[in-house]
Amino acid sequence: MKTAGGSADAKRRAGEQAAQEVEDGFVVGLGTGSTTAYAIEAIGDAVADGLEVRGIPTSFQSRQLALEVGIPLTTLDAVETVDLAIDGADLVVDDPGSPAHGTLIKGGGAAHAREKLVDAAADRFVVVADPSKLADRLERSVPLEVLPAAHSVVADRVRDLSGDPSLRAAEHKDGPVVTDNGNLVLDCEFGPIDDPEELASTLSSVPGVVEHGLFVDLADATYVGTEDGLEVRAY
Ligand SMILES: O=C[C@H](O)[C@H](O)[C@H](O)COP(=O)(O)O
């Protein structure tokens, strides 16, 4: 599993506490990453104790973990409702005075396209994070999942938008990261993002962009695990 920075205890606290929101009969979106993994494991424990749930994984990694811990799986097209989605984030704007409060940047694990599909479909979307993910403003590179044939034209378009794109390289093979959907990832630096809604809509309109990692107005709450407790932000 890809493990980002941040304390394992803090991540565990956030993940395990979010899993407490899962009720009998729920369909649950299973996000991706090292923090959500704790939630998936806790849901697996609850299933072993008799809780009846069905999970919708958002990546190869979350599917494998869900199978390992015994969570019955389903798909988005086989259900009418997704009751809850639990997912991590790479950045969470944590400033109640900002219009971007609760906006996320995701896709550090290149899973943001399926994550957005499932998180947006859920009646409630809970983010799990440790304090290293919280920021006063939206400033971090935005991952774009792009069709392989489109990577250079999308990169040109990002430069037109004053962004600085770089093709994400794989760590353990020569060449680029290939997503679970067979696409590539451009990490795009835009500096501080003052109008996330506008940038999100512009990026969505670029031909060849499958999905971007800006999650605007999607999260309902963030569980922030700390060294010795838990804080909950509601949006
Ligand atoms: O593509 C990956 C996802 O958006 C993850 O949810 C995000 O990268 C956070 O992962 P972690 O909890 O490992 O920091």
Automatic annotation (TrEMBL):
User: Catalysed reaction(s)?
Assistant: aldehydo-D-ribose 5-phosphate = D-ribulose 5-phosphate
Alphabetical keyword list = Isomerase
Q: Which residues form a coiled coil?
A: none
Q: What class of enzyme is it?
A: isomerase
Q: Which GO terms describe its cellular component?
A: cytosol
Q: Name one GO biological process term.
A: D-ribose metabolic process
From what superkingdom does this record's organism come?
Answer: Archaea
Indicate yes or no for the key word Isomerase.
yes
Q: Which InterPro entries match?
A: NagB/RpiA_transferase-like (IPR037171), Ribose5P_isomerase_typA_subgr (IPR020672), Ribose5P_isomerase_type_A (IPR004788)
Gene3D superfamilies linked: 3.30.70.260, 3.40.50.1360
Q: Which residues are the active-site ones?
A: E115 (proton acceptor)
Q: Which Pfam families does the record match to this protein?
A: Rib_5-P_isom_A
- Residue positions binding substrate: T32, G33, S34, T35, D87, G88, A89, D90, K106, G107, G108, G109, K133
Similarity remark = Belongs to the ribose 5-phosphate isomerase family.
What do we know about how this protein assembles, alone or with others?
Answer: Homodimer. Homotetramer.
Q: Which PANTHER family match?
A: RIBOSE-5-PHOSPHATE ISOMERASE
Name the job this protein performs.
Catalyzes the reversible conversion of ribose-5-phosphate to ribulose 5-phosphate.
Q: What is this protein called?
A: Ribose-5-phosphate isomerase A
- Report the gene name: rpiA
